[in-house]
Amino acid sequence: MRIGYDGTDFSGWATQPGRRTVQETIETTLSTVLRSPVRLTVAGRTDAGVHASGQVVHCDVPVDSLQSRSIDGDPSRLVRRLAKMLPDDVRVKAVEQVSTDFDARFAALARTYEYRLADALWGAEPTSARMTADWPRHLDVDLMNAASASLVGLNDFAAFCRFREGSTTIRELQEFSWRRDDAGVLVARVRADAFCWSMVRSLVGAVAVVGDGRRDLDWCVGLLAERERSAQVPVAQARGLCLMRVDYPPESEWAARSALTRDVRDESELRGGCCGD
User: Sorted alphabetically, which Pfam families does this protein's record hold (predicted)?
Assistant: First the structure.
C-alpha cells in the first residue's frame, strides 16, 4: 500500500498506548473492512508531526478477506472503501497484491524526503505552515548546498542520529540539495538507502547553521568524524519534513535486497572507499 498523511495531529507512525498514530488509525480501519486483524510493516517510521505523500507498507491478510462483495478479489478496490472510512488527514492511495518476497522496510533501495524551510521575517506562509518549518535568520542557499554536498556518501552519521541500541549509524547519503521555490521557501531533497532516528532533521539543522553564518563548512565536515550524537547540531522542526517516495528493485531482487539490508554495517565498510574517506 502507498500512503499519504498530514502528520500534524498524529503522534508519529508507530502505535503508542493512548495516542493517535498513523499505524493504529490505518490498522483499525483496515481490520474492520477485511474483518481480520491487520498488522502493518512500514518502509520508514516517521516521528510526531512528520508528513508523508509516498509512504509504503505491507501486510499479510487471509485470501478469504479479499473475497467480500465490495472488494471481489481485487485489492485495489480497498482504496475507495478506505477513503470513505479514514479521517481526512490520512489516505491509502494505492493497493496491490505482491509476493511474500516483498518487505516494505528491508526490500527498499532508498527513501526520499523533502524538507521545506522558510527564512522570511514573518516565518512560514499561513496557508502552508503545517508543512513548512521556519528559521529565524536569513539563509544562503549556496552555502547550504556546499555544506550538504560535503555530507553526501557512505559515512557514519552518528553525530546526526539519536542512539538506538543494536542499530548502526552508517548510511549512504545519496542526495542532499537545496533550492528556493517560487514563494522563496527553501526546499531540500534528501535521499539515502536508509535513515536513522532524527537523521534528516539533524542534517537540515546542521546545514542551516552554516547557511545563516554561525558555523563554517569545516565544522560541518568535521561532524562526520564524531562517533556519538553531537549536542552542537540543532534538530529542525518536524513539520517541515515529508517522506516523498520509497524506491524498490525489480520483483526478482526483493528477497536478495531484504537479506542484504538486514546485515548490520560496521566501520570496515568505510575503509579504503572513496565515499568513506
Answer: PseudoU_synth_1
